[in-house]
Amino acid sequence: MSKNFVLITSFTVIGALFGLFGCDNDRNSDLICKNNPELCSDLHKDSWCRFEKGDLIRHRYALKQSSTPTGKQLYQQLVYLENYSNCIELAAGVQHKLNTDRTRDRERAFAVSTQTLSELQEFTRTNNEVHLAFYRWTRFNDQDAFAIVERTYKQGELTDNDIITQLAAYYVRVSPNDAKTLYLHLLATTEPAKIDADWFLALASIYRQQQNAEKEYLLTRANLLMSDNHADEEKLLAIIKGNKTLATELDKQALELISAVMSKQFAQSRSEMLLK
Questions:
Q1: Within-domain flag for 113
Q2: Looking at the predicted structure, is the pLDDT value of residue 35 above 80?
Q3: What's the CA gap between 168 and 14, in Å, rounded?
Q4: Do 201 and 250 reside in the same domain of the chain?
Q5: CA 123 to CA 138: how far, in whole Å?
Q6: What whole-number distance in Å separates Cα of residue 94 and Cα of residue 39?
Q7: Residue 175 and residue 181: Cα distance in Å, rounded?
Q8: Global pTM?
Q9: Rounded mean pLDDT of 176-189?
Q10: For the chain, percent helix, then strand, then coil, each to nearest 5?
Q11: Is 29 a member of any domain?
């Protein structure tokens, strides 16, 4: 993708299409703006949307260091732009009685951000890199883009866990066995701090579809152990027809499952074999 595109669009797109790796000291967004004003001139000036604005600035700076932005970098820029635009839209609705310039500045920033987002969406519309295809699928229900994501998965080339998570959730309804494969992959490859307890519930729902009550109970219990969710124990026990002896054994298996996942020992473990 050519940098020439950047030169004929707004300052926002200038920031958007250039990469994110620099001196650690320059990651401070204020310093980045001071040394690279073209990356920030289209943004609002006050402290609203501080986190969204900071993420966008740092990613623009990162893109500036990249000779050719990757599909993933462009996808990330789209997401950061969306987050900023959504936040500043709300902020633009807050009227300053004394300092009306602030209100106008936010309104200007919102207008520019929506234009820039639209331009970047159009620029990446025909790019079939999987992250950008994923973006078009999830934002616009683009079925051609979904086909790219699915083909990448079927070819064994899908490695981004964020995409895998969304694809697994989609497959729960239409292809439960594929969903199961993807959720087990996530449990085996995701860092413990990023494990989502809802993955266990999704797996439980798959086993409920398949009328496997024991695994439904086990995974529901695992979700409860991993989250702040609360369950009616009588209803939970009813899944396995009130068999308390079996419940005791399945509770132990749920603890073993959680231990394996959180210690990064799930792959090839007894827990994984049990769920395959």
A1: yes
A2: yes
A3: 35
A4: yes
A5: 17
A6: 25
A7: 10
A8: 0.83
A9: 97
A10: 70, 0, 30
A11: yes
4 compared with 177, residue with greater pLDDT: 177
**Distance between CA atoms of 109 and 87, rounded to whole angstroms?**
11
**Domain final residue pick, 71, 104, 124:** 124
Sequence length of the chain is 276
Which amino acid appears at position 88 of this protein? I
- CA nearest to 164, candidates 199, 197, 193: 199
CB of 168 within 8 A of CB of 184? no
Pair (15, 114) in one structural domain: yes
Both 109 and 179 in a single domain?
Answer: no
Cβ atoms 229, 223 nearer than 8 A: yes
From 73, 108, 124, give the residue that closes a domain. 124
Q: Is residue 138 part of a domain?
A: no
Distance CA 158, CA 65 (A): 26
Q: Which amino acid is at 206?
A: I
Asked if the structure places residue 235 within a domain, the reply is: yes
Q: What sign for the dihedral angle of Cα 171, 172, 174, 178?
A: positive
Q: What is the pLDDT of residues 87-145, one digit of tens each?
A: 999 988 766 656 678 889 999 999 999 999 999 999 999 999 999 999 999 999 999 99
Pair (118, 165) in one structural domain: no
Domain total for the chain? 2
Domain that holds residue 95: 4-124
